[in-house]
């Protein structure tokens, strides 16, 4: 008989992971949701930034696997640092954490930067060429460059999709919204 492990990924996409919810919600999750996954390997992602939250989730048997996603694009060796007790938490970048699309784009940029050289070619440095978004000045430059890129992308895409693709119009409208949000941020009108 062939046995396959069942797996489920649960992404909270919250600043506070689900086990940090008010006690009533956490109890409900443990009583009603967790038993459904008793024969399943649960992967939890989203919201993990501290060693305490990771340890708590594993000790409560809420999960068997932790996904660190965006934090490890800033620190590729973060899991090793956590396991060795070197770091109590992930570094905090200077992006507005309510603007998830920006943090995702920044993480994608860091992944691209990691791929430019091997660790050997970089002299053993995992951080070689990876942008340090804990620097507010660099974040401001990055935001400006992203807005300029999006404006150009919108021009290119809108000329291609204007009359041929309904989906393209929605995509370009999304870029326009991003552009407007960036403009409000530049003028001190954050929402």
UniProtKB/TrEMBL annotation:
Keywords: Flavoprotein, Oxidoreductase
Regions that span the bilayer: none
GO molecular function: oxidoreductase activity
InterPro entries tied to this protein: Aldolase_TIM, NADH_flavin_oxidoreductase
Gene3D superfamilies: Aldolase class I (3.20.20.70)
Keyword Transmembrane recorded: no
Residue span of region Disordered: 1-21
Protein's name in the database: Uncharacterized protein
Domain of life (superkingdom): Eukaryota
Keyword Oxidoreductase: yes
SUPFAM superfamilies, per database record: FMN-linked oxidoreductases (SSF51395)
Organism the protein comes from: Caenorhabditis latens
């Amino acid at each position: 008989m062939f046995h396959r492990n069942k797996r489920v990924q649960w992404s909270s996409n919250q600043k506070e992971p689900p086990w940090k919810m008010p006690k009533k919600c956490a109890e409900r999750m443990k009583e009603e949701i967790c038993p459904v996954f008793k024969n399943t390997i649960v992967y939890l992602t989203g919201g993990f930034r501290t060693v305490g939250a990771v340890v708590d989730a594993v000790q409560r048997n809420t999960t068997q696997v932790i996904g660190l996603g965006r934090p490890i694009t800033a620190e590729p060796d973060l899991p090793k640092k956590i396991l060795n007790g070197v770091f109590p938490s992930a570094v905090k970048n200077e992006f507005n954490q309510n603007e998830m699309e920006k943090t995702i784009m920044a993480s994608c940029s860091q992944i691209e930067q990691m791929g430019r050289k091997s660790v050997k070619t970089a002299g053993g440095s995992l951080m070689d060429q990876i942008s340090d978004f804990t620097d507010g000045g660099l974040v401001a430059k990055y935001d400006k460059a992203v807005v300029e890129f999006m404006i150009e992308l919108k021009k290119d895409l809108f000329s291609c999709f204007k009359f041929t693709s309904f989906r393209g119009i929605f995509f370009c409208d999304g870029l326009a919204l991003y552009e407007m949000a960036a403009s409000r941020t530049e003028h001190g009108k954050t929402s």
